[in-house]
Amino acid sequence: MTEPQSTQPEADATEGEPSLLLPPRKPGIMARLRTYFFTGIIVAAPIGLTVYITSWFIDLVDTWFVPLLPEQYQPDRLLPFNIPGLGLIIALVVLTALGALAANFFGQALLTLTERVVERMPVVRSIYSALKQIFETVLSQSNTSFREVALVEYPRLGSYTLAFITSGPRTDLPGLEGQEMIGVFVPTTPNPTGGFFLYMPREDVRVLDMTVEDGLKMIVSFGIVEPSKGGKGKPKPTIPTLNI
Number of structural domains, the chain? Predict the structure, then answer.
């Protein structure tokens, strides 16, 4: 005997599945305009801010150094138009000449005499001494401060943040004699000029294969900008001894 055939239509094999025959819906005109607008911001904002900050810095330096020229040699008197960046050129020449003067015997003697006079001023000597030490530490070519990026546990265990090594291992800290402690600066986001200075055990500071520039970019951009290919941020197994 043959089984009776069902009079109901066979169920569609693709029932419940989305149809693949309909083309994807194109975004509307407002969605495309919104996309174009934000793309324009991404393209124009870095260029505009770079031009604005550069122009502001050049105008500031011009305001400081152009008045150092004698009045008869002022650009406004000699030329019918302004020369932007003239103060920056004067600043480079003056600072280079000052550095060359301080490098010889006469300049060193004059600098020593000036420092002796400043040391007799109660408030000024503290400001001068602190500023001099900061600039010597940051700008010294033989110093390793702020030239290495590290990963430290902060502000609690289990959470990590970027930090910059500011001083090498020390074993003479009061109450921590014999322990190797490293000075690190933990900057805040997105303004890296503020932050916290910490002494941490050597084993808790992991140096990253990352340049200081890439570290600053990550901090300013909330971690959106990744390190360049030259440094992928891979922790090193050990911390090299720093010269202080």
Answer: 1
Residue 190 falls within a domain, yes or no? yes
Domain that holds residue 203: 149-220
**Structural domain contains residue 94:** no
Question: Does the residue 48 lie in any domain?
Answer: no
Tens of pLDDT along 65-83?
A: 888 777 777 777 777 777 7
Q: What is the pLDDT of residue 73?
A: 76
| Distance (Å, whole) CA 71 – CA 174 | 58
Region 200-217: mean pLDDT is 89
Q: Among the ranges 71-85, 105-119, 150-164, which has the highest mean pLDDT value?
A: 150-164
Q: pTM to 2 decimals?
A: 0.52
